[in-house]
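Q: I'm writing up a methods section and want to include an example of the input and output format. Could you take the sequence below and give the corresponding predicted structure tokens, formatted cleanly so I can copy it straight into the document?
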Amino acid sequence: MLKNGRQQLFNYISGILNNKKCHLYCINGEVDHIHILTHIHQSIAVSSMVKDIKIATSIWIKDNKIFPHFIGWQEKYGAFTYSIKEKENLIKYIENQEEHHRKVSFTEEFIRILEENGVEFDLKYLF
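A: Here is the clean output for your methods example:
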């Protein structure tokens, strides 16, 4: 993800969430993924929100030529719920993505999160 286009993308996603009556706490990302910490309005399913973000941003990115090599989002996604008590820790974690991923790859991180939370998975269905 080009650094100069990231903030534009994040602002666009923020607008999508705002229009859906969701509250964005933090957003950040790297070349191969983004993290969004949000309070989703009770009338919206997580899968529906992810689908709306992917469809709208795909069109917007291509129309505005923000990321020239972007061909689309992958089909899969990960969504996790956390206690509101963890909000500040999650914000710090998301804000420090660039530094964090110098030490740990996205794949390693995602598998660790699944294992820590007791989520059974088969690698062939993850990536």
